[in-house]
Amino acid sequence: MVKQTIESTLDGKIRCDACPVMCYISEGRSGACDRYANVGGDLIRVDPLTIIENRKDNGGQLVSFLPGAEDKDWDGDLVQAKRSFVTAVGAGTTYPDYKPAPFIVSQQERGIDMVTVVTEGIFSYCGAKVKIDTDRYLGPETSAVRVEGEPVGHVTTGEYGSQMLSLGGVHHLTGGTKKEGRVTCDALLRLCNGEAVEMTIDGGAGIVVKAGTAPIINGVEEQRMRVGCGSATIGMFAKQWAQHVDEVVVVDDHITGVLSEHQAGRVLNVPATGIRIKGRRSTPGRYFQVAEPGTGWGGTNISDPLSILGAFDPKTAYPGLRLLMVSTTGEQCGYYILDENLTPVLQTNLPEDIRLSVEQIAENCEPAVCSVLFMGGAGGSLRAGVTRNPVQLTRSVKEALTYVSCGGAPAYVWPGGGITVMADVTQMPANSFGYVPTPALVAPIEFTMRLDDYRALGGHMEAVVPIEEALKVAERKVAQRQDVPWPTESQNFKWQA
């Protein structure tokens, strides 16, 4: 546990200055945020300082320099196998803003003196971008997303095969009612810490979101995201279908595809079938707005695919014509043969070749999953913990002299002014996030650079300590994830060799 500076006491209580709430904490109790406690008269950071280790005994993978080296007392030094990185998880904050960051640690990376500035930022300007891999209709764009009846965000523009939510932000945290702010902060905290959050969308669905797992929409767990839009699906599987059916319709909320009219069908010499699609024709074989959005076939509101068909053209269609209708995930399909009246009749037995083609659609669909990206703006007080001249840090980040990470995970830094970061919460150590009751989210952020660059931007050089000092107080050590780059690697910087 990390000791914090004690500003003052009152009747045996310690005043915590780690956030603007300024709790007075009795012996044996914790503050309103549950992050700081009074232990024997000392103000203690409750959550453990977390270190990431790249070590074989902690799950890290080593690659020997020479064959058989593992049998000759080779210890992995040539690949920097015993490295440690001090994250900001459990480090504490810079509040009341004039203090240097809790840990400013130096270490060598392949002979280069490096420094990492570690702090837990108090983010009022923060939120989560949620990507939900599904074609199911969640709700109209800009519709409110609610938790416990309170608005915590909105539906934003959809992406290819995914629905998108924008949650949190300063207006929900502090611009609405007190309950709205509390519920928003709690929902963000749970989402970013990998917990499931139940939401409802105005005019749309109920959904359960948990980072790294499949979404549950209206009580049903999603299995897969679409292989592509209806037109793309036609293009991908046209060769298989052209041999075994006369017509294929791939139902999709965005672009419904028709094999015989599509360019892929024409190249393969698929003859016209006289099929008619209800919807707005875009280009040959591609139709918009065949149905309303929904949770049925291909992200539409239909349960009967024949409802999007008009009468077949009797000049072209013929009895016995074979028609496959399928969704973009392969979860729904129907095989029909036109009768004497040119009416599609559903066949109970799916031909083997058609069954295999539908299964191939499903095989090419990726699993449905929820992605949660923390997003926050690193403001003046946080930057002041790094340097006395905060704009210099911003410039150093934009010039790729300083690498930004969140709990050791890479952070995407948005272009433009300020330091606006976005990080995948599943790449961060468990329980990386906390909160303060202002309300605001507390998130780890690290700035790594060469020691000379830190000195040049006006850093708090008097507060720099060897990494060994931080390791002494670290109570939690986690292994490096193999899919996450090591923060001090030269490849993260403009000056890389």
Automatic annotation (TrEMBL):
Name of the protein: 6-hydroxynicotinate reductase
